[in-house]
Specification:
The protein is an all-beta fold. Helix content is about 0%, strand content about 50%. It contains no helices and eleven strands. Strands 2, 4, 5, 6, 9, 10 and 11 form a seven-stranded mixed beta sheet that branches.
């Protein structure tokens, strides 16, 4: 079974940067579409960015500030976040094997890593 483990979250001041990582347990996971989602308290989970065969897609709030990438040798997904804002505060999840930004379509999820921007 595929396991995804996120890391790299933390607390930063507005304008700061964080780089999230998501280690996949299998080679196969990183060959499927992978994505980052986030969920703030009291809000629905929302898509942030996806990557599939080196093609990336971002939601509007992530464009120009966030960069999704992957290292297929390390089976690891990344999310570089720059220019962080308080509204970026959320639990960030990586997901694998799904469609676009449709959360319910993804078959594998990590446990999440908290990002807090003050």
């Amino acid at each position: 079974d595929v396991q995804l483990v996120e890391s790299g979250g933390g607390s930063v001041q507005a304008g700061g940067s964080l780089k999230l990582s998501c280690a996949a347990s299998t080679y196969t996971a990183t060959r499927e579409r992978m994505a980052w989602f986030r969920q703030a308290p009291g809000k629905e989970r929302e898509g942030v960015a996806t990557i599939y065969r080196d093609v990336t897609n971002y939601v509007d709030f992530a464009k120009g500030r966030f960069t999704i990438s992957q290292d297929n040798v390390k089976n690891t997904l990344y999310l570089q976040m720059n220019g962080l804002k308080p509204e970026d505060t959320a639990m960030y999840y990586c997901a694998a094997d799904g469609v676009g930004f449709i959360a319910r379509s993804y078959n594998y999820w990590g446990q999440g890593t908290q990002v807090t921007v003050s």
